[in-house]
Design brief:
The complex is a heterodimer of chains A (267) and B (289). Chain A is an all-alpha fold and 267 residues long. In chain A, helix 4 runs parallel beside helix 7 and helix 7 crosses helix 9. Chain B has a single domain, classed as MetI-like (MetI-like fold, Orthogonal Bundle). In chain B, helix 3 runs antiparallel to helix 9 and helix 3 packs across helix 11. Chain B is globular. The chains are: A mainly alpha (267), B mainly alpha (289).
Chain lengths: 267, 289
């Protein structure tokens, strides 16, 4: 019994910062620029949301969506064939181990450490300050992640299904499209959701490679809001809530995949 | 085996290889190369100086401070996060009504954008009007200068990091806890082992690989610390919360000392590479079990 109370208590405690954000987004300034500890708004207002929407905030949301969709598509298009090749083929000279090791280093490497030459690459390609450039840069984070995650899922698809199809004369592409991809669907969805969250929350590359404010993603915009005014908390909270709703909805969706990804070492 | 079958895996790997070649391998080599050059404001007029940049780093008080802060932050936040994750995992190990709900809600801070997290906590840390100091004053205690005190600022950021990422450590440790067979406990109980002894002599050793992975992944991530510092303190007060990532950012993208920034980046990559080797070894060991 004590256990249950403790569990719910801790859970409630860890949620207070988010409750504060939700509540503050509906408070008039007088209620949060104050020393009151009241969490809930006395006189709720939608003013902060109105300011954001009138200020063209939806554009930034759209930017984040475009970048997330692009990042997911590219990571899956490049990551699935790579994971399949690594799982199914014998590669010479243990190339697979070398490749996976390299992918692991990239996955663990601090993104800032590659940022300077990456800036030069994007400038040379004329992709600085474009969403396509940001999508490419995001692959540094997304592709290693997608390859490692998909590798586990591909290995779980029994090869015998493919062998049976091969006996029926199905070519490689047909096998991939008609057998592997459908069986992989849960894994693909989980990977896509993860990469989307990663891209949605990504800040560093957006800060470094996007300069025009109208092209900002949500985290980059929030960073400017944070520094704009020390106590702009109503607008900031409204912005934070809008930026968080999609990922919070996704949590329920990926909770199982999450447990799965972090326990890679059992496979 | 036909030629086309031999070529197929390479064809499948091509898109990923192209992306890695252009966006990681080339930048990696370029960072190594740039770290050996003195660059005068930008990329032009680079002059080869050997290891001079590394000596400058070694002598730099700012870099040393950044390294000290990063190591302190990494060690303390990792230990706290793994401890909190272990506590939560043990707490939630036995099923009770509402457990799935509690677990889902506990995960929420982990998936929030770090910038949203920073926005909330920077407001909470505000000295005059922040929620934390309002609470303290309401019970008659003085306000705490969370981000103004150079001796406290780093620990305030640790607090935020623990709040945000302890759920991640919890996930890994919980997964490990689920895999301990219950009959092990039954046997111990029959032998008369109390709860503390069962925890110390059975749960902890069996859980050790998971605690290790959780600690490793958390320290890799903490080592990169940038977003929170950038938007919460900007590295201040003074140099109190400067990190290695912030140092690279500042040198490379603010002062345009590309050579020095690249040298610091090389140091970061070396540490990440080392951690990757440790991680890979633990994965391989896990696979051989």
């Amino acid at each position: 019994m004590i256990r249950i109370i403790a569990a719910f208590g801790l859970c409630a405690l860890s949620l207070i910062p988010m409750v504060w954000m939700v509540a503050t987004s509906f408070k008039p300034p007088a209620e949060y620029v104050s020393t009151s500890i009241a969490l809930w708004p006395q006189d709720p207002t939608l003013a902060h949301y109105r300011v954001l929407l009138d200020g063209g905030m939806w554009r930034l949301g759209l930017n984040s969506i475009v970048v997330a969709l692009g990042t997911v598509s590219l990571a899956l298009l490049a990551g699935l064939p790579a994971a399949y090749a690594l799982a199914r083929f014998e590669l010479p000279r243990r190339f697979d181990i070398v490749f996976l090791g390299f992918v692991l280093v990239i996955k663990l490497a601090p993104p800032i450490a590659l940022a300077i030459p990456l800036y030069q690459v994007l400038r040379a390609l004329g992709l600085l300050d474009t969403h396509l450039g940001l999508i490419l840069a995001n692959q540094i984070l997304a592709l290693p992640f997608a390859i490692w995650m998909l590798l586990g899922f591909v290995r779980d698809v029994p090869y015998s299904f493919e062998e049976a199809a091969m006996l029926d004369g199905a070519g490689f592409v047909k096998r991939l499209v008609e057998i592997v991809v459908p069986l992989l669907m849960p894994g693909l969805v989980a990977t896509a959701v993860f990469v989307a969250i990663m891209s949605w929350n990504e800040f560093l590359f957006a800060l470094l490679f996007i300069q025009t404010p109208s092209k900002f993603t949500l985290p980059a915009f929030i960073a400017t809001l944070i520094n704009e005014d020390e106590t702009l908390w109503g607008k900031l909270s409204a912005m934070g809530l809008i930026a968080s709703l999609p990922v919070l909805l996704a949590v329920g969706l990926v909770r199982r995949g999450l447990t799965r990804e972090v326990s890679v070492d059992q496979h | 085996m036909t030629a086309s079958r031999r070529l197929l895996p390479w064809l499948l790997l091509t898109p990923a290889l192209l992306i890695f070649a252009g966006l990681t391998l080339y930048p990696l080599g370029r960072t190594l190369a740039l770290s050996l050059f003195a660059t005068d404001y930008g990329f032009e007029n680079a002059k080869f100086v050997g290891l001079e940049n590394f000596r400058e780093l070694w002598d730099s008080r700012f870099f040393r401070q950044a390294v000290t802060n990063t190591v302190l932050f990494t060690v303390v936040s990792t230990v706290l996060e793994v401890a909190a994750g272990l506590g939560l995992a043990l707490l939630l190990d036995r099923a009770f009504p509402g457990r799935t709900l509690v677990m889902t809600l506990l995960l929420a801070p982990f998936v929030l954008s770090t910038m949203v997290v920073t926005a909330i906590w920077r407001a909470w840390f505000h000295f005059d009007l922040g929620f934390l100091n309002n609470l303290l004053r309401a019970i008659g205690l003085p306000g705490v200068p969370w981000l103004f005190d150079p001796n406290l600022a780093l620990w305030s950021i640790v607090l935020v990091d623990v709040w945000q990422t302890a759920p991640f450590a919890f996930l890994i440790i919980f997964a490990g806890l689920r895999l301990i067979p219950q009959d092990v406990y039954e046997a111990a109980r029959v032998d008369g082992a109390g709860p503390w002894r069962r925890f110390r002599d059975m749960t902890l050793p069996l859980l050790a690989p998971y605690l290790f992975v959780a600690a490793l992944l958390r320290s890799v991530d903490s080592f990169k610390l940038f977003d929170k510092v950038y938007a919460m303190t900007g590295g201040g007060p003074g140099q109190a919360t400067e990190t290695v990532s912030m140092f690279v950012y500042r040198q490379g993208f603010r002062f345009f000392d590309i050579g020095l920034a690249s040298a610091a980046a090389v140091v970061m990559i070396a540490v990440a590479g080392l951690l990757a080797v440790v991680y890979a070894a633990s994965l391989l060991k896990g696979a051989g079990r």
